[in-house]
Give the backbone structure.
Amino acid sequence: DVAQEAKYDAANFQDIIARYVRLTATPSAEPADVVIWPESAIPDAAEDFLAPNTWSRAAIAAALSPGQTLLLGAVRVGGGTPAPLYYNSLIAVRRFGNDLQMLAAYDKHHLVPFGEYMPFDRFAALIGFKTLVHIGDGFTAGPRSVALSLPGLAPFQPLICYESLFPSAFSRSGPRPAWIANVSNDAWFGETSGPWQHLNLASYRAIEEAVPVIRSTPTGVSAVVDAYGRTLARLELGKEGVIDADLPSALGRTPFSYWRDIPFWIFCIVGGAIASIDKIGRRWRVKSR
C-alpha cells in the first residue's frame, strides 16, 4: 500500500524498505519457499539498494529465512558508464548464510509506449519533441520472455505489469512454466476500476495455459489465481498485508496452448470465403433473371 506519489520522495525511502521487510518477516505457520514483491517495489536501482555492505541489503537478507527466494521488481542498470541502459526487471535473490545471492533477472520485453519508452525515439530527439515533453531515454526492452528455472522451485513465467494482457507473452521455448509470477505497479491507477480490470485480464492467462498466476502489486489487487482462473486469495485494493498460500497445481496443456490463435484465423478465413461466395452467388442470380 505505497502510493505512487510517495514512492519518489526521498524522505519515504527508508520507510518503504522497512515496510516490505516487516511484511516479509511476518511469522507464518510454515516458511514460504518464495516471497514476491511488486514491480518497482523499491524506488531505486537494484545495483544501489542491493550493493554489498549496504544497510538495505542487510535488512532484506535478515527478513528472509535461510534458503528462501525473493522475487522483487526493480530498475536494473546495464551497459557502459557513458550510456547506461535501464531495464524494468524482476530480480531473483536468495538468502545464503547472512547475505543475498543473485540468482536470475528477467527484463521486461513488452514496454509501455510513452510511459516506459518513446516510440521512434531517434526521430523524436531529432525534432526536439523529447525535450519539449520532458521525456528521458526510458527503459530498454529485454529479450522475449522465457521460463525461469531456479534451484528448488518449479519453472515459472515472469510477466511484468501489462505483459499479463498478452497471450503471446507465455513462453513456448524451454521447460513449460508451472506457474506465472505477475508483478505490477498498479499504483498508477489509484483507487479506480483499473486494478480490478488488470487482475481480471491476468486471470485469462491462467485459463489459457492451465497454470496458476501469483500476482503482486503495491496498491492494486494482489492475488493467487488457480489454473481455472479462479481467485483463491486476494489482498484488496489499497490494503497493506500479506497473502500466505500454497501454490496451486498446474493442469495439463490446453488446446489453446497448442494451437493459439490458429483456429480463430481459420474461422475468419472460412467465414470470409463463405460470405464472398454467397455475395457473388447473389449477384449472379440477380443478373440471370
Observations:
- The first helix runs from residue 4 to 7.
